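Can you please make up a whole protein chain along with its backbone structure tokens because I've never seen that pairing?
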Amino acid sequence: MLVSIWKNYSYVILLMGLVVVMGAVALINAGGTDSYHQVTVQEGDSLWTIAAELSDDYDMSTNDLVEWVSEKNNLATDIIKPGDSLIVPGGEELHITDNNIELASGKE
């Protein structure tokens, strides 16, 4: 019985297997497209001011973004100091100065 099914439908079975494998590969690759960049903390910056500036761009609340940055940077507290480097979401490098965001390319 199984031999008969294999002889008649082997191409369908192989095609279905290929579709499943290709779908799995596509899902794995799609999940790894998150992009991050580093921000150097400036004088007067806090996690809350940085998160407030970035929250609109990433469709996250300031609270959620503070939690995300704290988790990704393994911060035990919300206290940061000038010169610290933080990983934040996004594809382009940002410079946060005077509470404004500027792209590394100089374009806004």
